Give the backbone structure.
Amino acid sequence: MADPAGPAASSPLVGAAAEPTLRDLSVAGRRAWSFPELDVPGAALDLPEAAAELPALPEVGERDLVAHINRLAQRNFAVDIGAYPLGSCTMKYNPKICDWAAEHPDFRDLHPGTPAHSVQGALEVLLAAEEVLCEITGMERASFQPPAGASGEITGLLIMRAYHQERGRQRTKVLIPDSAHGTNPASVSLAGYRAVQVPSNEHGLVDIDALEAMIDDDVAGLMLTNPNTVGLFEEDIVQMAELVHAVDGLVYYDGANLNAILGVVRPGDMGFDIVHSNLHKTFATPHGGGGPGSGPVAVTGRLAPYLPGPMPERLDDGSVGWVMPSASIGRVHGNHGNFLVVLRALTYMRALGGTGLRRVAERAVLNARYLAHMLSAAYDIPYDKPCMHEFVASAKRIKNETGVRAMDLAKALLDHGIHAPTMYFPLIVDEALMIEPTETESPETVEAMAAAFADLAVAARTSPEELHEAPHRTPVRRPDEARAARHLVVTWSMEDGDD
Amino acid sequence: MADPAGPAASSPLVGAAAEPTLRDLSVAGRRAWSFPELDVPGAALDLPEAAAELPALPEVGERDLVAHINRLAQRNFAVDIGAYPLGSCTMKYNPKICDWAAEHPDFRDLHPGTPAHSVQGALEVLLAAEEVLCEITGMERASFQPPAGASGEITGLLIMRAYHQERGRQRTKVLIPDSAHGTNPASVSLAGYRAVQVPSNEHGLVDIDALEAMIDDDVAGLMLTNPNTVGLFEEDIVQMAELVHAVDGLVYYDGANLNAILGVVRPGDMGFDIVHSNLHKTFATPHGGGGPGSGPVAVTGRLAPYLPGPMPERLDDGSVGWVMPSASIGRVHGNHGNFLVVLRALTYMRALGGTGLRRVAERAVLNARYLAHMLSAAYDIPYDKPCMHEFVASAKRIKNETGVRAMDLAKALLDHGIHAPTMYFPLIVDEALMIEPTETESPETVEAMAAAFADLAVAARTSPEELHEAPHRTPVRRPDEARAARHLVVTWSMEDGDD
Amino acid sequence: MDFTPHTEADVERMLGAIGLADIDDLFAHLPATVRIDRPLRLPGPLSEPEVIEMVDAYGAKNRSRLVCFAGGGIYDHYLPPVVRTLTMRPEFVTAYTPYQPEVSQGVLQVLFEFQSMVAAIMGLDVANASLYDGVTAVVEAMNMAVAATGRDVVWVSRGLSPRAREALATFASARGIDLVEHPMVGGRTAWDAAAAGPPAAVIFGQPNYLGIIEDYAAATDLAHGTGALSVALVDPMTLGVLRTPGSAGVDIAVAEGQPLGNPRSFGGPVVGLLATKLDQVRRIPGRLIGRTVDGDGQTAYVMTLRTREQDIRREKASSNICTNQSLNAVAAAVHLAWLGPGGLAEVGRQSAAKARYLAKRLGQLPGVTVAVEAPFVREFPVLLPVDPARVVAAMADRGFLAGLPLAGDYPEFPGGLLVAVTERRTRRQLDGFADALKEVIADG
Amino acid sequence: MDFTPHTEADVERMLGAIGLADIDDLFAHLPATVRIDRPLRLPGPLSEPEVIEMVDAYGAKNRSRLVCFAGGGIYDHYLPPVVRTLTMRPEFVTAYTPYQPEVSQGVLQVLFEFQSMVAAIMGLDVANASLYDGVTAVVEAMNMAVAATGRDVVWVSRGLSPRAREALATFASARGIDLVEHPMVGGRTAWDAAAAGPPAAVIFGQPNYLGIIEDYAAATDLAHGTGALSVALVDPMTLGVLRTPGSAGVDIAVAEGQPLGNPRSFGGPVVGLLATKLDQVRRIPGRLIGRTVDGDGQTAYVMTLRTREQDIRREKASSNICTNQSLNAVAAAVHLAWLGPGGLAEVGRQSAAKARYLAKRLGQLPGVTVAVEAPFVREFPVLLPVDPARVVAAMADRGFLAGLPLAGDYPEFPGGLLVAVTERRTRRQLDGFADALKEVIADG
Ligand SMILES: Cc1ncc(COP(=O)(O)O)c(C=O)c1O
Ligand SMILES: Cc1ncc(COP(=O)(O)O)c(C=O)c1O
């Protein structure tokens, strides 16, 4: 952009300048805040541990604050701007009516410590959402205390631990496929277990023979994602569950992405004992740049007593109250979990109903299958099984032939007005591009994705260097991440280091 | 942007493609709408004049609609993104608390036909706003029926006409300075009067001798903007008013931009009889891309009987009711004017109070004076009088020396992250650049404007062709306006003509 | 509160730069006789929480939750939250009129789409980018017809909205235009071909103010027979079930666009729609957005036929309108796209079916009759045995805004109440309305 | 409703392209034994207006307008509308975790500014980009301390939020961590240097759950004397009047960030804050945003020190957290910037002054005493002559959420009620609260 730059030069509409920080914009004496005069006696407080000076916050007026944040927003991609086929993240469009519900003052302004008699509506929302989630997953009870999927995982694993402990067992192992999401092994460690990797076979599915060989009575349970992270359905799931149950282990379902199975199959029917799901992926909560989410845990009847508490329960007098499950693992969140996210999910589930949820699964899979089909010409699809809601393509061949890597292709996709897919995950596929179109994208949009990918496969041969340099239109390009870690600057008070 | 383009390619963040229209996005069978099933007997309506087919509207789903509109928004500049020194338009920052007020359900959901007893709050808002406006302008009564400034003008002129008519006169002329805003002469014609131009003198002020010569008893009145459209205060205003009053003419104040005089001078004290003002310029209503506004008309006591009606009045029982002024010109709007805009204005006026409004005037003038001072080195400031809230600079010298025109400079300013000033208005200044920084911009922002203008003055000499081509970073550049008029395409059903 | 960023130090520095000592010196050149030496006598300043308290307090004095059966141009249709969400984007809300197309493609394209959809539902060639409201749109249409025909008589149906007729009167006299009113018989206009003329325009409502469907041909044939333009004020929410004015031979169709995207807002801001035939395009008032290309051949939108407008044409402009209702037009465009063909038809179908249901229920109440036989769409007049104003007050106590009394505008219907129904009214509300009205009448 | 755009024709076409005849064929390869051959048994589908009706109906069963005197981490502070307006920009709301920095500079920079401001108010070097809430932040701090010291005992003040102590218990046992509770005397922690140890961390609340200001040095000296990390759970809205935990020698400061930018939300989503010293940065849980430059030397922000995280480090990660509370952190950042130094100080000053005023008023009521002598900031415990649970119920009927009963968590205060005051409470509300409480107590 032309120098000298005016304030809006960081808006992509007119410039590509860096946006100053609030600290850069700060001028002593500026302010946005406004409060009434103190209307009670305001004698000196003389508190112990009193502050010696004012907090070291920036000083900006409302006008500069508003423009600053609006300009920053314009520097960010989002589902509400365009397609976002980020595999395993389910970046679908979320209905605005659910946003409306989450802003409803009758819920938004509730204090979590309000006694049950004054928040019956909120408690009924929790019960209603629990019912729906149990019908979808084929479970008995569910807790909405976990605020995200990883929290749901540790909650489920602590339930697993409590189950074995009550039976006087000190089991040490939890089995996890090598394709598992990173939160799975991390949660296993936090639960005091050892994560043992189960290899995948050439079809991208769990190697059931290897699994069988690993089963012994030191195995607390098996943690599985199905469809797994390469987007394939674990067809031997029933046998796997039997193997684990044979040693009285528990089978855990990572249901972060339920899109593909809504109204098609239910974890409970497959033999799972514990299921967490991500309301922020499947049930209409936009991702907010990294949260908030909600990771409810649903379990079979025999595990219900271990759920975190308190749980909402319908009491004899017909009202809903808070009850602590008899053998509860305790509390996993400071309040009742991310309640407003649950409210969103309930509005979504009610708006769609059973038929609508099934339609979600059908069209999520249809879009993925259609896109995979169109990509198969130019990209390797490493596995022969039909994909569910997402699939993994490999840029290995392209890399070998042209030196263009998955990363180059992902970045170049941005120049086509489409968000990049997930790269280099799962780890079992080289140069993995994990692609999830989601059910809310139209066929035309899916076709535009296919056309863009095809174009890139050609460009990799005709102008590889251009792809190494991609993206070309974004305000910043390939930031130096190594430098960021080497010269750590994580607050504006830290000196920017230079190479 | 790279081809083929994905949906987001029109977002300036990643592309510069054109955004398709809703009609381009339309697919038969798609829909966003959703209503409950009809819950009463729905027999065939068999209406006369029934529709033979469905309306020819586009068919899009919510997801595509949302992304389309969000992308379009990103293709638009706005005050909330950056500085917007568009002279005579007062593009100041408007507090978000006023937006909040305008969305308040207790006002937003009122039907204008609700009887007075059920909308006392709304009527009190109108009375309170009227009081404030009268104190600011030095008038007796005000009507908020006119929905914008031009509507206020015709309303004021019809009052002028009614005043003379009641006195049995058929006057034909209204005097207007040659620097007047275009709505002034247009309104004069609509009021059945002839607009007669009063020349400006070399100081950019009304030539009072010329004015005196024009005064006769065919003059219905004088219409004046003060500070005038070159940003100067008409210092002889008192004498001018006396000249007009001498023939029992009325003096009309175009108060579209009151910023400069709030708490400093009052039209009533200067001798004006009728004042319209633009709440959407001075009193916290953002411009909305061209409206809505509100153009209340305030008058002296003797003209109050002519105001449009009905007017809210405090009744003997203490409640507020609707009353028709005794000699009202009648109705100028279908309801009560742009009520929610009046509500915004009241919140703003109360938030600031008398001291805050005076501060607005001081800082609006200070910013303009400061900017004019910094620009005077590189640009001609055609008049020697100190400016008020805005000023006109001339690019005449630059044009003569380099061929770079005001238009080139204005467009190039966009590349600096600052919105263009008003160009070629008022008509009395060659290559006019009319600049209004407004009081909500910080000194740093005003300095950034000055630096950008200075840079352009240099660029005009060093690289004129680059300026002829400006802007360089925007998604479209110098659209062909002649072609737009020649090959008229004002709906998507019209064939795009080609040259 | 204070929304100017300047600190005292900033002010000092800036005054110094321009060679002034004191902030008051900025105004030293103003005549001392008119400068005010006292602060304005105004309440405030208030802090932000106090502002909220004030607005809440005024709001508490309104009955804003009455179940709405009032119409007359402003209706309580279902407004999906997505419309506000999109319309309130700061890039739309805080932009000026799109004088610089390079950085205004967002507003320009949405308004182009608004024009396209308005023209489509009207069945006409072109539409402008918004007017103040439906009533002032009627006035603009009158002015267009006068300019087009050079005539100074305008024929107006008594069935046209009384508010519109009042506004026509306000603006006609100053320009020496005579308005000739044509009576209603049985709820429809009885056009008098022998009235003083020849007219520049024949203006009527479709449906008319009583909600009755007029005979299109009677009006348009009359107009075209005399060389006048036919002007119809239509209800946009009926255009999914009624034929388009364009297909019925109307030359200029105008409408109150509020129900498209805009809350009732106590009557403003709303939005006026105006559509006409291509041969009238150069007489259209206000903004008109056109499509063109830029230097690189890229599709672009601009304001076009600017020579019609006041800032170029000055006293010869087709209208004095400048600021219009753009943001409300954006809302209307988003809502029209949300509705689509099926949604607009569904709104019309359900509103009409529910109106019939209610009319039937009310007709069964003792002493209540539907005022006219002629077919209506979704609004209809009933005659009550009790003073309608008192009924409306009593119904408000029962949670209903019962409708608009007619007697003030139509003395010929002393006990008349105009009742409007939208798709939003549930059967429970319709039955509740009828039951409440029964009580109220019984109480006298 | 249906948010998939596909028409039947689209589905046909796509199935054809992939060689399938029927939509069910998509699932033909799933074991028949587990496929369900019936629709899910769920209420719905609902139309959009019906969804609104449903949510309104649930909402009507909440008393959401009670004047709030409850605290315990969640407070009713003034939240300026501008915070929601800016936070709800769709570019923030509908973006994923910023894996692609080229198109994520918006979220990344706001989170960087969030980190900077959190570190600033805490008086510490670094802060992360958010945790679930204050209570889970305490758990993460415990895990950091255990990792840092290799010890498996943690000392916890009985004054620490009971919710936090419950969560610590939930997570500690699985990892074989022993929690040792230290008692309270006179409302403050009476640390027992002889307790079983050595501890990995010394964890306390500042102010503690009763609202009392703890002696910083007592806790931090104890911790440092034993080579443990000191961990404080602080109330961010008091940091304008209390010294920063960093300046008091705290190693890890955590907080419930709800009052910064977020409504009470029935307790979630809220946001957990965590700040610490630079030497602990590699043990920080969750996202961390760093500043760097891109190929053109342009300033850019990226997620950094990613090797701490689960997606890279898997079972050896510093935490399992992935999705966090970014949007709530954005809201907190905007609100912190709106407050600035003066605003945060004003909130603290007014809340404290009003709390004192109310404590004085309540102390004068018959049978009511302030439970402890020790100085509090803005929340304090009172002892009532009547069962606090019954008092809270009776006060709700009078429009107040009176506070949080203490007995369940602190049997030593059988008649205890924890009362919180914010700057938002007006004198009228404070007096009204006292008067209502007097009545309620009189009624027994
Ligand atoms: C398969 C899988 N499991 C677990 C998670 C973790 O969920 P969360 O990010 O909500 O903690 C995710 C999402 O990131 C996921 O895709
Ligand atoms: C001086 C002046 N007069 C009149 C007007 C017309 O006001 P409006 O656009 O609200 O009709 C304007 C603004 O455009 C103006 O600047």
Remarks:
- Chain C touches chain B through 204 residues (CB under 8 Å).
- Residues 326-363 of chain C form the longest helix (38 residues).
